[in-house]
Amino acid sequence: MRRSLVPLLFFAVSPAAAQSVVTSTAPDSVSVSAFRDPGRGEGGEIDLDSLEGFALISEQRTIDLPAGESVLRFEGVAEGMVAVSAIVTGLPGGVVQKNRDTALLSPASLLDGSLGNRVHLRRTNRATGKVTEEDAFIRSGPDGAVVLRTAAGYEALRCSGLPETLTYDGVPKGLTAKPTLSVTTRSPNAQRVTVTLTYLSTGFDWASNYVARVAGDGKTLDLFAWLTVANSNGESFADANLSALAGTLNIEQDFDELVEPPPQPQLRLSCFPTGSGRYGIPPPPPPPPPPPAPMAGYDEIIVTAQRREAKLMEAPMAITVVDTAQLEDLGDLKLYRVPMRVTVAANAQKQVALLVKDKVPFRTVYRLRTCPTCEPKNESTEIVLRMENKESGNLGIPLPSGQVAVFEPALGEELLAGEGAMRDHAVGETVNLVIGESSQVLVTADNYYAPGKEGDDYRLTVTNANRFAVALELGFEIDDLKRVDSRLRKLPRKDGLPTWIVTVPANSSRTLDYRVKD
Amino acid sequence: MRALTVTCFLALALGAGPAAAQDPAAGSAQGELSVTIYNGGQSLVQDIRQIGFPAGRSRQEFPDVSAQIRPQTVSFSAAGTAIVEQNFDYDLLSPNALMQKAVGEMVTLLRINPATGGETRERAKVLAVNGGVVLDNGGRIEILRDDGLPVRVIFDKIPPNLRAKPTLSITVESKSAGTRPATLSYLTGGLGWSADYVSLYDEKAGTIDVQGWVTLTNNTGTTFDRARTLLVAGTPSAAGMASYGGSYRPRAMPPGELRRAGTETAPREQLGDYYLYPLAERTTIANAQTKQVSFLDVAKVPAQKIYEYTVGGFDNMTEPASAASVIKFNSSAQGGLGDALPAGTVRFYQRDLRGDPQFIGESRIGHTPMGSELGLKTGDAFDVKVKATVVSRERRSDRIWRSSMSYLLTNARPQPVTVDLVQRGLDWYWDDTRIITESQKSERLDSDGTKWRVTVPANGEATITATFETRY
Question: Splitting chain A (518 residues) into consecutive groups of 10 residues, what average pLDDT does each group show?
């Protein structure tokens, strides 16, 4: 008898009376660690229209806990929060349970949650403007239509042709404006605590953006990199500790799927048939006419080009920054810490300096990869900028993947001379950046006919129309080394390929003869 | 006008001090512009603006940059300043964004009675915006404009983050207060150029007059005012770089436009491998504008009209086929155009009997070095045709076949023409094809093809015969 009383008592007291709801609206301080889009190609750029990376967000929040069991609701978190990743620390009583509430307050859920309850039906008379309100009870769910019981009998909402709406006395329990994380905790006494909420969030991405400025002598360049971070969440993170992580993490689950709230009820009101019904369902109204086509403003101005005589004003492009990000090793990842507090705003991209390295020696190499029997015809060559990522090469730092813009002086200005994609480079690696293609250095191979030689002779010609000599590396993909003669077999290897390395003087050409047996 | 604006701004900035610089309205509009335009719709914009910096840290906004700016490519420099951070905010103001950000806030509802026009003013709290706006109107929960009656929603303020346009801002640390020129540079899409060539062919004299035009298109959504403009012939990007082809040999490849690559350097400024085409004067590049600028004008360049036909294999042709009309010329300093040719379309015109130029066809060229030989196809000739016939094919032994070919070339024009007849497929699938006999000596092009240059008399025909021996 006594034993059965205990649970009874528990049920009567515990859930409603003892559980108070504490809402924490905003953090006191926040840290954001951005991770790159794992699916982005090497050297790829951020796509501001769809950020596929993520971030680890850590927030400190001050909370006044009541004694006993309470539900702690966290508001103002990123809308891309991956709730299953959330960790709450700093609660004296620990976390009893963690919930993510995704039943959202919407017209449909409001109606659904009010089933059987008393609501108010408000009608407005269009002729007199008189507003009448009467009590009604909802008898049907939101699927399809709403049937109400009024003093007059049973009616269907908005089948009367009158402007009518329902108003409610309150919001049904458990509906929230946005997906919300809540935790249940038990505190021995009422106290003020600082809790840390840590979670992963989608809607972030970062990349590095390099600016390489070639010096006047064409032998060294000044390398500068921006750390570019973007946030497509609707929340801003003010005065945040920002860091970015480079490296490849294993990601098994699609975060976007975890973030997406389950489908919400939709409100669709359809009435019983009205009208005579003789002509079936009236056709939908015709679509609006297309907007007038914009007139292309063909305003033609003719200017005759000449060689510009005057030297242009020297436009200094050197980027001066207050401070650059600090690099830390975090296991097999690289962590770049922004040295000051910054605001990561909603729907915004931000750039802070990542690294500055001056006077980095480099070489420009022209490169083509072909096969012995491919017979390229006036094929353009890749322009490759080569640096050694070593201390001796004035570099020797981890280079995270990103786009590189190369500027060179010409006509007194610094002009974009090339753009390339940089992959992640560890210290010690050679950086080969393909920054463009040359139409001045072209490669042609002819399979020429020498009588009695069965047409196996090839002559490869490189032409250089530049007024400077160029270094060419022509790599051959060879399937069967036995088929090619020693002139190809004995070529030195470069990146695994037998490579003809030759300097083509200004305004001239060079040839390579070889034979391939069928 | 511009000078006036700048002066006003300076006075303002100096008078109000640091506070004015923090005010977004104080950002200067476009300054002295330099626009460098590349092929492929990419451009570099350099904008030198006069900015009044306060001492210490300040945030500078930059309105009137290209609407297609690539914000990650922005560079900024000004004497005595260092960059703290660069921001690009695109949280744009819209009715929906305004309502979303008002969740939990109070708004004013102004109801208008449909019959009387009477207005009722109420304060309500926005509870949620999920497929409809749920409002708490003094304890009564309702849905905004559920009954279709007019309700004005009046917001107290615009959240500070919401902006009219994407905004570029740079936070700098300045050593001293004062107005200084600051250089902003960035890359933008939507602004590109291509070359168009107008080529007037004089058949009697055997010459062409060529005008080269740069066609510049601005679809950025922004007008660049009085910009110093420089065009670069080249796409400084690794994107679109063709990978090496497979090892198979395509059958019967017609000759390309570029017959032999040149090794001469054009008398122009270069940026690495790219030629530069500066415009002599500052020009305004208006939005949605196409602008043409001349860069090449040469007359009386020797050009030869030739007809070309390539026979793919040793097959019968049941119908005669038209030969291609090709105009050949070179871009050499001696006896040619004397310039490098940026990629574009070459349109050929020829005068009719009245002396009016008529369009006779066009051909695309890639970036072509100076000193190159070009052969541009203008179309297929109406009057010049080729028909190939397999006269006999016999097996000589297990692995040897012999094919006798006859080619009939017909010319319905009242003057003699020259046809380059090419037989291909000599080394496509089988090896070591020999020419046993031929009625006219051919020129072996490579192991796969041989060429006869045939003169066909006016309103006449010519026949070429040849016997090939093939082993496989």
Answer: 39 50 91 92 86 95 93 89 91 89 86 87 87 88 78 85 88 85 91 94 94 91 94 92 92 85 75 64 47 39 35 54 88 92 93 93 95 89 94 93 92 89 93 92 86 77 95 93 90 93 96 88
Q: Which two tokens stand for residue A186?
A: 């038990």
The owner of tokens 């660049």 is B224
What pLDDT, on a 0 to 100 scale, did the predictor assign at position A451? Answer: 65
**Is residue A250 within 8 angstroms of chain B, CB to CB?**
no
For A449, which of B130, B246, B447 is closest by C-beta distance? B447
pLDDT > 70? residue B431 = no
Smallest Cβ distance to A416: which of B36, B294, B446?
A: B36
3-state secondary structure of B13: helix
Does the beta-carbon distance from B183 to A317 stay under 8 Å? yes
Among A313, A347, A467, the residue to mutate for chain B (most B Cβ within 10 A): A347
Contact B147 A165 (CB under 8 A): yes
Tell me the pairing of strands A68-74 and A220-231: unpaired
pTM for the complete prediction? Answer: 0.82
Comparing CB atoms, the residue among B76, B114, B276 nearest residue A129 is: B114
A242, exposed or middle or buried, with CB in 10 Å at 0-12, 13-18, 19+?
A: buried
Instruction: Give yes or no for A265 touching B (CB within 8 A).
Output: no
Stretch (H or E) spanning A488: helix A486-489
CB pair distance less than 8 Å for B237 and A349: no
- The confidence score (pLDDT) of residue B114 equals 83
- Percent of chain B past pLDDT 70, that is, above it, reads 89
List Cα–Cα distances, A168 to A137, B123, B140, in angstroms.
11, 17, 6
Matching residue, tokens 């006798």:
B404
pLDDT of A125 reads: 85
From the list B404, B335, B394, B332, the residue with the least C-alpha distance to B368 is B332
Residues of B (180-199) whose Cβ lies below 8 Å from A: 183, 185, 187
ipTM rounded to 2 decimals: 0.80
Residues contacting residue B386 through CB under 8 Å, at least 6 positions apart? B309, B311, B317, B320, B321, B323, B407, B408, B409, B410, B419, B421
Chain B residues with CB-CB distance to A313 below 8 A: 48
